[in-house]
């Protein structure tokens, strides 16, 4: 697992170096590898701060546009630094979107969260609760591999229902009762769906990067 993480990190660093050297194809691949990650974060931002009333795709598009334009300003060299830079751009754009939303929809201003509280990604906030008997949970896998990109890509491979229940339960941190209401299902049905989604996600996360591509 450490070898997989090292290989993945080396590849991303190589893409960063090539992109800085003017390799257009390397830059496109670099951004493509992070698209699912940014899309998932953007949806989490929209659902949390704008109650889903803004299209997350607009936030993604703006974030990637600014990242492309300002790529020369990125000074890091590791995957962690690269993702932190993308999250910073996303957080800044989220604040701008919240301000616009507040200006156009005064009715919900009192219920909106403070701008300063806009999340800077899911690091430390994506909680995966293990089914009984699990030997290694996805959160432990993430701790070992720091595989935020792989996590986003793995979630994207799940069925729509599995994606939704994980998003609501683990990214939004909603109680099962509210998740059940959102998904128009009973609480026991949602809990079973969630356990199956977690098990499937564990399987995907344990694959090598090459297997999951």
Please give a structural write-up.
- By secondary structure, the chain is mostly helical.
- Helix 3 packs across helix 7 and helix 4 packs across helix 5.
- The longest helix has 26 residues.
Structure at a glance:
It contains eleven helices and no strands.
Return the structural class: mainly alpha
Query: How many helical stretches?
Result: 11
Low-pLDDT runs of 5+ residues are 109-125, 130-145
List the quaternary state of the chains: single chain
Radius of gyration: 18 Å
Overall helicity: 55-70%
* CA-based shape: flat
Order of helices and strands: HHHHHHHHHHH
Cα distance, first to last residue?
16 Å
What is the β-strand count? 0
Strand composition percent:
under 5%
Largest sheet: none
Mean pLDDT: 77
Write the layout of secondary structure elements.
Blueprint (H helix, E strand, L loop, with lengths): L1 H19 L3 H10 L1 H15 L6 H14 L9 H26 L33 H8 L2 H9 L3 H12 L4 H8 L3 H19 L3 H4 L1
What are the main properties of this structure?
11 helices
């Amino acid at each position: 697992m450490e070898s997989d993480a090292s290989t993945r990190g080396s590849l991303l660093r190589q893409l960063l170096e090539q992109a800085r050297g003017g390799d257009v194809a390397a830059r496109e691949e670099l951004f493509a590898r992070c698209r699912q990650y940014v899309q998932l974060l953007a949806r989490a931002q929209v659902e949390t701060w704008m109650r889903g009333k803004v299209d997350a795709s607009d936030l993604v598009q703006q974030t990637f546009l600014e990242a492309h334009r300002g790529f020369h300003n990125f000074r890091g060299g590791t995957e962690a630094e690269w993702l932190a830079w993308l999250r910073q751009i996303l957080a800044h754009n989220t604040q701008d979107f919240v301000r616009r939303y507040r200006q156009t929809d005064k009715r919900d201003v009192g219920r909106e969260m403070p701008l300063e509280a806009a999340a800077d990604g899911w690091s430390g906030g994506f909680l995966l609760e293990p089914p009984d008997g699990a030997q290694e949970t996805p959160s432990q896998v993430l701790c070992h591999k720091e595989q935020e990109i792989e996590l986003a890509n793995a979630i994207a491979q799940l069925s729509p229902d599995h994606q939704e229940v994980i998003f609501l339960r683990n990214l939004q941190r909603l109680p099962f009762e509210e998740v059940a209401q959102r998904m128009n299902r009973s609480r026991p049905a949602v809990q079973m769906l969630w356990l199956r989604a977690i098990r499937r996600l564990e399987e995907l996360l344990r694959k090598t990067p090459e297997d999951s591509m």
